[in-house]
Amino acid sequence: MYRYDGYDHQMLADRVAQFRDQTNRYIDGKLSETEFLPLRLQNGLYVQRLAPMLRIAVPYGMLSSAQLRKLAYIANHYDKGYAHFTTRQNIQYNWPALVDVPDLLADLAEVEMHAIQTSGNCIRNTTTDQFAGSAVDELEDSRAYCEIIRQWSSFHPEFAYLPRKFKIAVCGTADDQAATQVHDIGIYIVKGANDEVGFRILVGGGLGRTPVIGKEVFEFVEKKHLLTALEAILRVYNREGRRDNKYKARIKILVKETGIEKFKNKVVEEWALIKDSSLTLTDEEIDRCQQFFDAPNYQELSNSPTQLTDKLQSNILFAAWHSQNVKLHKVTGYSIVTVCFKETGVAPGDVTDRQLEQIADLADQYSFGEIRISHKQNIVMADVRQDQLYILWKALESGAMASHNLGLLTDVICCPGGDFCALANAKSIPIAESIQRKFDDHEELTNIGEMNLNISGCMNACGHHHVGNIGILGVDKKGEEYYQVSLGGSSKSNASLGKIIGPSFAQEEISDVVETIIGVYKDKRSGDEKFIDTFNRIGLDPFKEKVYAKAD
Amino acid sequence: MQKLINKDAVMDNPWTVMKASTGPEILQAVPGKNFIVPLQFWKLYSEELNDYDGAIAVWIDSDENPAQIADALHSLPLIALNFPVFSDGRSYTNARELRQKYAYEGEIRAIGDVLRDQLYYMGQCGFDSFELRHDQDAELCLDAFKDFKTGYQSTIAEPTPLFRRR
């Protein structure tokens, strides 16, 4: 993974000192609440319902075992012993005290980590496929480009006070696992003419109040022009994005109101000024960044060793976990393991300090000392030898981390909701739990098959409800918490936004509603058709009829 | 009195920023001043300004665009860019554009809600001088330009991005 040099370390040290000074001035009353607000947000610090919430950046989801141990220490030392994985591949703490935050950031800096630009109206953490570098269907490893974008976007002096937050995703795989099309900028690594590898760039996607699928602004951008293209888009947005209404300030609204062709012309005009400037990427820089993501020292192994196949036959639980949580690796004899953090009764994405340490140890033993966080709030060990899968699974089981529901109905994406978040209209964690309790039979879950159920506690959509096959949104109805259900969303390559099924439901009705929806699907599916495909074939009406017939 | 600084020191301020709502009668009422006039004023009253005996510069608000004044830029000794509120980031882009697109070489000044914690980024985007909000401590503000020793980007202050300097 990327390692800091003297320049990176210096910038991080400067940033920690800067924020320490800002915090001190705020505490001394020399900096007003309003003026401190964007400064603390750009260092990841929110003031939440119960305490401050600190969001730590995990660039494109990659973590080393040393970083995991530091995060465990922070959970233990500054928090109440746990941390939370977010849908932007980041980590949040819910209990650090404001006065401790500068020290906490100094601790993080020791392991090349920070909370820079994890919030505020600036360019946020760039995200990507959690299988990058190991996926079988990858054109090129996206992480080097994510790192190039990370550096360009960190402390960018022109874009620190944008109209609104700005999110970029990069995808190098055929099967899009990064929800690329619902980002302010979505970048696909593609082949152009003469098989040259470059980028297809989408702009103006996003969730929130006004969900939109991104539109193509550049069909093909040469690698060397990546940063100048991004800079041109950001410049048009910074100048022209709406600032009169924060709900209309995202780039998706600008693109919609301007029209994609006219927007593109403006970008092209800006781009022309800088296209061959010093910001043009060099081959040396691309090589330098790619070297950090060179393949680890893989051994020559064969697929399906007896150490694996024997256990698959003798241990049903292991076999269930293997069929659900273990995916193909591009290197023979290796697998990609996803550790699913969706145990019933535990808030989705929550992890304890002890678990973080265990994962660090297991990563050292079985996956070259590195892990990734997925936007679905799980952890990936991307390079596990197949002959070690069973001992890894045994170890995960002893740490209560062997849930085998990856990609199934109970592998819910869920924001912290009304239990923690000051913005939420409704709780989301208890909804996730009620559904997990209703569907507690693994055989039934695998029978239902691939399913994304996403829950957000408000229309800011941190739980990505618009792109859930089943999406649940908490709404406020005359002071009561209600839930709106939508069907048919997807964040994959053929991204789509869910359609609202009808009037909202009370909290206690939700798990029954989901059961009814699943019933309709099972009834109507043909063969091994996935839920999303059945929905696309039969539409909303059959679900609607059944769900509301029951309510009457 | 608002203090004026450049990146090194507190400066004397021979310029007066004219408020947006001012009418042309001020030119007769207050002769011999050095005014930074609003862009609209400059466009509406060019004849009156030609006859005026003090120096004239222009300020551009954050929702205006240097393109509106492109032809005349090089005759102006100073252009001020306004921050109606510190969190409005449009003037950063206007500053860069003045330097990058129009090759403007005169002084670029930040006016309005100009605070200590945004000065470093302003300095990187091509601003030379900073008319601080009245409550700001000028000495403390001078430290702001040392917040970071270097950055990753290609900026006006450092056109070579770090990846070409590493």
Tally of distinct domains of chain B: 1
Overall mean confidence score, pLDDT of chain B: 96
- Low-confidence runs of at least 5 consecutive residues of chain B: none
**Distance between the ends of chain B:** 44 Å
Order of helices and strands of chain B: EEEHEHHEEHEHEH
**Broad shape of chain A:** globular
Largest interface: A-B, 39 and 37 residues
Radius of gyration of chain A using CA atoms only: 23 Å
Share of residues in strands of chain B: 15-25%
CATH fold description of the largest domain in chain A: Sulfite Reductase Hemoprotein, domain 1
Mean pLDDT of chain A: 94
Provide structural commentary.
The complex is a heterodimer of chains A (552) and B (166). Chain A is α+β, with helices and mostly antiparallel strands. Chain A is built from 18 helices and 21 strands. Chain A folds into 4 domains: 6-110, Sulfite Reductase Hemoprotein, domain 2, CATH 3.90.480; 134-290, Sulfite Reductase Hemoprotein, domain 1 (2-Layer Sandwich); 306-398, Sulfite Reductase Hemoprotein, domain 2, CATH 3.90.480.20; 413-551, Sulfite Reductase Hemoprotein, domain 1 (2-Layer Sandwich). In chain A, the strands form 4 sheets. In chain A, strands 16, 17, 18, 19, 20 and 21 form a 6-stranded mixed beta sheet that branches. Chain A has a 5-stranded antiparallel beta sheet with strand order 1-2-5-4-13. Chain A has a 5-stranded antiparallel beta sheet with strand order 3-14-15-12-11. The model of chain A has no long low-confidence stretch (mean pLDDT 94). Chain B is of the alpha/beta class and 166 residues long. Chain B is built from 6 helices and 8 strands; from the N terminus they run βββαβααββαβαβα. Chain B has an 8-stranded mixed beta sheet with strand order 2-1-8-7-6-5-4-3. The chains are: A alpha+beta (552), B alpha/beta (166). The A-B interface holds A 5, 7, 10-11, 14-15, 18, 22, 31, 35, 38-39, 121, 148, 151-152, 154-163, 235, 238-239, 243, 273-274, 277-279, 281-282, 285, 288 and B 65, 86-90, 92-94, 96-97, 100-101, 115, 117-118, 120-122, 124-125, 147-155, 159-164, 166.
